[in-house]
Amino acid sequence: MRRMLLLALAVPLLQGCKRETRDLRPDPPVAAALDGVAILPIGIGGRPPEVYFALGKPYRTNAYQLSEGKRLYAWFGCPQCHGQGEGTARGPALLDGWWNYGPGLETIYLSVRDGRPGGMPAFRSRLTNDQLWQLAGYVQQLGAYSGGAAAPSRDDAPPTRPAENRAPARFAPLEP
Amino acid sequence: MKEAAQSALAPGGAEAATLLALFWPVVALLGAIWLAVLLVAALGLWRRPGQPRRPGWPVGVATAGTVLVIIGLTFASYLATRPLSAAAEAPLVVQIQGRQWWWQVAYPAEGDAPGFTTANELRLPLGRQVRLELAAGDVIHSFWVPNLAGKQDLIPGRDNALLLTPREAGIYRAQCAEFCGLQHARMALLVMVQPAEEFARWRAAQAAPAAEPALAAEGRRVFEARQCSACHTVRGSTAKGSTGPDLTHLASRGSIGAGLLPMTRGALAAWVADPQTLKPGNNMPLVPLSSDELQALTDFMALLQ
C-alpha cells in the first residue's frame, strides 16, 4: 500500500522532469546549415533544410524559440510597418491568414532574410540564421490557421489582439 | 582610491552612513533582547516541575517592554530614514535602465556638457548629490550599491528615483538585487566615485564620438556590415542599434558583459566568439565570424578608448 502511494507520488514528480528544453546555443555548424533552404525559382514555396527536421522543428513548437521570435519582432522594427500583426499603411497584416507569398515557414524565412519587393527590407546581415528562424516561426504563429500548443511570453501592455496561440487567424475574404 | 568590498558595513556615502548609524543600535538592542529571552528560557527549563504556573508581574513587564521597544525602533527608523529623501538644489541626474542582463547608464545634457549613453559603469563626482532615475527595459530589476545606499527597484512602467551622495572616492560594486532571469547573478555594475575635475574630464571624453584610430581600423567595416551594428551603437560610425549596450568607449570600461570578464583583448575576442557559453541565455547571438574577421573586430574594439 505504502509503496503504491510512493509510486503514485513519484510519477507526477518525474513527469515534471521533462520540461521544455531551451536551446540557448545552437552549434555553429547547425546554425550554418539552417540557412540551406531549397526554394522554388519563383521565391514561393520550397523545403527547409534537413537540419531543421533533425532538430525537431522547434521554431513553431518550442515556447522559448517563439518568445525569442517575439522579442526580435519588437527589437528589429517589425511593428513599424506590421503593427502588432494588424498591419499598417506601410506593411501588410500578419494576423489575417492571408499570405502574399504563401504560409510556408521556409517562405516566411526567405521573406525576412532576403526582403520582398514593395519595401520589406532584408535582415540577412542583421540577424543570425537561428534568429531568422525564430522570427519566422513567430510570424507564422501570428497568422496560423490553427492554435498552437506552445505560446510565447505574454505582453505587459493590455492586449490589442488575441494571444498568439489562441483563436486561429480569420480567413481574409478573397479579393474580387 | 578606496576599493571596498561590496558591503553595507563600509559606507562610502552619506545615505549608507545614515543607514549604518541605524543598523548598529538596532543590532545591539535586538541582540540584548535575544540574550535575555534565552536566559529566561533557560531559567524556565531549570525550574523544578510541579510549581504553580500563572502569569505574574514578569509577563506584564515583558509585554510593556516589547511595546516600548517596537515604538522606539519605529520612531528611530523614521528619524533616521527621513533625510534619505531630502533633495539638494541641483543634483546630478543619471538615468539608469535595467535590461536583461546589463545596465544602461545615460547622462542627460547638463549646461554645456552634452549628454551621452554608456553601460555597466556609473561614474559619479565626489560630494555632489546624485539623483538616479531608475527604469526597467524588460522585467523588474533592483539597483543595489550597498556601500552608497539602500536598494531601489526598477519596475517596467513605473519610474523610481534614488538619491545618493558619495563622500569617499573609490570603486564600489553594485548588482541587481531582484531575480530577473537566467543571468541575474551576472548583472553587476561598477560605481566609480571620482574627484569633480576627473569626473568632468571623463564626461567630456565619453560624450565625444569614437576614437580616430578605431574608426580607421579594418574591424570597423566588419562591425558595421555584420550583425553587431544591428544592436550596438558606436558613435562616429554607421552602427546605431539601441537594444544592446553603447560601445563607443567600450575599452575605457573596467569589465565586459556586466562585470563578467575583465576588459582585456582576449576577453573581448572570447566574448564575441561565443557569448552563449560565457553567459548562457543572454541576448547576444553567436555571430559566425571567420578568424580574420574576429581578429579585425577585436583590434577595432580594443581601440574604442
From TrEMBL, chain B:
Q: Which Gene3D superfamilies match?
A: Cupredoxins - blue copper proteins
Name the principal localization, coarsely classed: membrane
Q: Which residues cross the membrane?
A: 26-46, 58-80
The Cytochrome c domain extends over: 214-305
Q: Where in the cell is it found?
A: Membrane
Give membrane topology per the record.
Answer: Multi-pass membrane protein
Q: Which reaction does it catalyse?
A: 4 Fe(II)-[cytochrome c] + O2 + 8 H(+)(in) = 4 Fe(III)-[cytochrome c] + 2 H2O + 4 H(+)(out)
Domain Cytochrome oxidase subunit II copper A binding: start-end pairs: 89-205
Keyword vocabulary terms for this entry: Copper, Electron transport, Heme, Iron, Membrane, Metal-binding, Respiratory chain, Transmembrane, Transmembrane helix, Transport
SUPFAM superfamilies for this protein: Cupredoxins (SSF49503), Cytochrome c (SSF46626)
Free-text function comment from the UniProt entry: Subunits I and II form the functional core of the enzyme complex. Electrons originating in cytochrome c are transferred via heme a and Cu(A) to the binuclear center formed by heme a3 and Cu(B).
- Report the sequence similarity comment from the record: Belongs to the cytochrome c oxidase subunit 2 family.
PANTHER family given in the database record: CYTOCHROME C OXIDASE SUBUNIT 2 (PTHR22888:SF9), CYTOCHROME C OXIDASE, SUBUNIT II (PTHR22888)
* Protein name per its UniProtKB record: Cytochrome aa3 subunit 2
